[in-house]
Amino acid sequence: MFNQNLIKLKSYILAYRRQLSVGLVFLLLTNIVSLIAPLILKYAIDSLKGPIDPGLLIKCAAAILGVTIIQGIFRYYMRWILIGTSRRIEYDFRNDIFAHLQTLSRSYFIKAKTGDIMSRLTNDLNAVRMVLGPGIMHLVSTLILFISAWGLMLYLNWKLALLALIPLPVLSLIIRFLTHRLYTCSEAGQSQLAKMSAFAQENLSGIRSIQAYVQERAQIKQFQQQNQEYLKRNMKLAHVWGFFLPLMMLTSGLGLVIVIWMGGRQVMSGEISLGDFVAFSTYLALLTFPMMALGWVVNLFQRGSAAMGRINKILDTAPEISDTAQTLSANEFGALKPLKGEIEFRNLSFFYNGPDSQVLSGINLHIKAGTTLGIVGPVGSGKSTLLNLIPRIFDPPAGELFIDGVDIRSIPLDELRGMIGYVPQDGFLFSASVAGNIAHGLESQDMQKIQEAAAISQLTREVEGFSQGYDTLVGERGVTLSGGQRQRVALARALAIRPRILILDDTFSNIDVFTEGEILKGLLPFIKGRTCLIVSHRISTIQWTDHIIVLTEGKITETGTHQQLIKQAGTYAKLYQRQLMLEKLEQAK
Length: 589
Description:
This protein is of the alpha/beta class. It contains 23 helices and ten strands. It has three domains: 89-315, ABC transporter type 1, transmembrane domain (ABC transporter transmembrane region fold); 330-419 and 501-588, Rossmann fold; 426-498, P-loop containing nucleotide triphosphate hydrolases (Rossmann fold), CATH 3.40.50.300. The N and C termini lie far apart (77 Å). The mean pLDDT is 83.
């Protein structure tokens, strides 16, 4: 029943050992009280042999009623504490899983599907909670009741008690045989649910493309196939479970048949009293539900074990990028502050997945603090990769990338990223308000900083035209905004934190030339004294920068100022001439 997958729950159980101990005390009291009623019933029935005393029968009935009430009170607190504690453990466990996900590197999320992760955080985690709550509660209750009731049955009539044990070997064989099947079927069903969740999530996220290409029927058909497979796997589980429960009940019933047959003969022969026989039969009946519950508990543990195995795959994934033994301590790093923002690449080469996937080669680049670097190059030349190395979105080799002369792998990751304002190409927005998105990197929604950043990003007029101003919700991934607006909100988010280093990765690609010019006018005073790196396919965006490099196939092929590169008549100059010609053609129209 127990599985190595569930070992990780030990620390959570120990953290709530006091609450669980109190709950188990109430569980023990509940079961002890439930064992009193058959003894009262035995006494009442045996008293009928002589002159009937109505007062005694009333007292017995009142005693049974009182026992039932007390048992109900104990059972309430038992369930309230144990089930409530399982909810608290679920709360802590879910927070820990989410916190662990936040530490994982981008490469993990490239491979993992969002729907699959969501399934593990919801359905799988609920299956684990069922083990911690009802599973443990009914398992312990069954063991206590089984031992206690059987002890009393041995006390009443040891021969009859031993005869009632005859079906137990059959029961153990049933549990052993079907437990593995339950685990396999549970894991298969949960895996398929994760696939179906991932499919639904991707489908809903890409609904505009699906509708644009009239693929609704095809997607519905695929979802039906996924759903059919989920049904098929769950029907297998239901088949095993449906076979399991009746066998458990049949085995328990065999014990009752033996007791009624042999016990009835003993009553007729005078070996035991009728009261003993009724009490014995009542104790055996008390074990009927626990025996049925045992089958349900086995199912819970197998489903929970399968679910925990899937969750463990997340927890066992170590972040590829993290602080190491070489990382400076808080005190050591504090002595270096404030960092100026000088960036240096020393013969840096970078590979994604081995020697056959080299992206950057022999990069030697020195960016002085407070200066601006422009980067251009064809698609796939390594521009974004170069930028992603600075905040360690991708991890650079040791000793090849430095900030203020310090290897960035020695800088605490939180400190490193805290000094960088990074605007990636996609400009992702959250399902929040405009103000909430801009203030994403701030400790609180400082409206002064939000409005200043929005003004530089040329958002003020448009935001003020929204129905709720800065409180306007932008929808999932900013769906209610245009591409240019999304990029400007993402830019404002980076500006709001007033970073030491500002990285703009093709941030103006969806913004018209006029608006871009207005943004640059406001941006120039802001970046004065800050180190800034700008990737763009437009020469107009970077021609004013202090220094420009051209990347080609992962190597720096040209370097200099705008004027110097024009004179070199290389790739940069050709790109500039081509863009000038396109602008003239546009103006001629």
